[in-house]
Amino acid sequence: MDEFDVQRFYNSMEEFNVLEPIGSLYENSFVKKLGSSTSTPKSEKDTLVSFIVYCINPNHYHLLLRQEAENGVEKFMHRIGTGYTKYFNNKYDRSGALFQGRFKSVHIDSNEYLLHVSAYINLNDRAHQLGSSTSKLVRSRSSWKEYVGNGTNGICEKDIILDQFRSRQEYKDFALSSLESIIKRKEELRDIGEFLLE
To answer: How far is Cα 17 from Cα 171, in angstroms, rounded to an integer?
Structure first.
């Protein structure tokens, strides 16, 4: 609904990505502010998943994850779904499910597929052409700047993608050219669907 909600989802991605449940993100924020946090920086051994690419849109999100712990993807998705729903329902005085159905996952079984999925997710707001239809208060947030920015840290393990290109610019060119074909395919499928309905 607003930029804070997007930031909260992003924070949830980081905070809920631990082997042991953390409880309430809200309550833990007070512990951190008071300086009594005993947490240490997370290593891959302490996390459920590694983030490769992400995009948080106003009405859906995409994550490209590498599992780091047994059932890590399932546990992470459960925690983020439950935790964020509790936050959102409390903030907007609503109840019930926030996300439609169980999360969908697809195993990436080839390097070519990995590269194209990374481009699709990094540029997902553009693939859905959300830029012009969303309010100024709510913008999509993705790992795109982590991939194409100079020295951008972020939360993603980018080497699995970027090490396959000579430069960030080469990846950017690849991703943008992939986006063109993705949008063209979506338009063709929409046209076919409209033709079949007629």
So the answer is: 27
